[in-house]
Amino acid sequence: MDDDCAVDGLLRAPEGATVFDSSDVYGLGHSQRLLGRMLAQVPRASVRITSTVGAFRGTSVNAYRSLVLHGQVEQSLENLGAESLDVLTLHYTDFGPRDQYLEEARETLGALRDLGRVKALGMRAPKRLAAGAGTAGTRYQVATARFAFLVKQLRPQVVTVPFSPLSQPPPEHGAGGREEDEDIFSFARRHGVATTITRPLGLGLLTGKHRPGAAFGPGDVRSSLAAPVLEAVQRGLQPLRDRFGSTPNDLARLALLYCLRRCPDSIVLTGFTSAQQVALNYQGLKTELSDPDYEFVDAAYAAMRADLEEIGQTPASARRRPCRASPEQVSLPTSPRSDDAPCSPQTP
């Protein structure tokens, strides 16, 4: 995308979006500056701006040292041309050995809120919470315990989690259940915390554009997806194509409406690559799914998930194993270009 095209899309987005998400590392500030061009042309009170911090530490030993944290927030505000961030989300939760910088970060975040530079704090949640009946010490339980500890320490008002129709669905809104077996959405509701969903289109797979043998660019996380995953997703999308239409916009509409209905109290973030795509996305959302249509869509996605489980693979686990472990790249300057996670700009 060129800059003018990106800003044009951003200016179209307020027709249906009220929340815009960016980061200090998306294009190393370029994404924020593009968003700032849009903010200069719309009433500031009409939109909410969220941004992440913590992926860049400069020459400091830790990204959450006070000077770094203050500096990154102030730089983000300068890039955006804004006086405050509605939500500041912590990109990572590395506060140094034995959390030695956690207290310093907590005090700095409190000062930023007192100054009115940050209105609310956000955190990234684990992809799944471990059930209480699981085996002690599993990586899911470790991640869950860590998340619960930081929620108590930092008291975020928003948690962010990847979710799509390919994910294990949360219980229907209002359904009961044991506290120890709750998922991230019921956990958030119990703590009075808002939820933000990322990757609702499953890295773009649910638009149907990426068929087996598709070529992805360098650094694109989808390049490591095994062929059986792409084949299973294509099979699963066919009933939806037959009933609702076969274009990527038709299929994207279904995925977005599913997420909005299944997680009714969540913010759903999705990216764009053109102003036309923005317009088509919101045009599609004006017509809600009827109950029979929703049940059909729900059943189709459930069959797709079952197909993926039967072959022992899911989009999150079906990546070919590398020779050596490497950290997952999430929203870094070289983040993958996909339909719901473009590098520049990364905005809903």
Description:
- It is a single chain.
- With 348 residues, this protein is an alpha/beta fold.
- 39% of the residues lie in helices and 9% in strands.
- It is built from 10 helices and 7 strands.
- The chain has helices at residues 3-12, 30-39, 66-80, 102-114, 139-154, 184-190, 227-244, 248-262, 275-285, 291-310, and strands at residues 19-23, 48-53, 87-90, 121-124, 158-162, 194-198, 266-268.
- It has a 7-stranded parallel sheet, covered by helices on one side.
- Helix 2 links the parallel strand 1 (19-23) and strand 2 (48-53).
- Helix 1 (3-12) crosses helix 2 and helix 7 runs antiparallel to helix 10.
- The two termini are 15 Å apart.
- Residues 131-135 and 316-348 have low confidence and may be disordered.
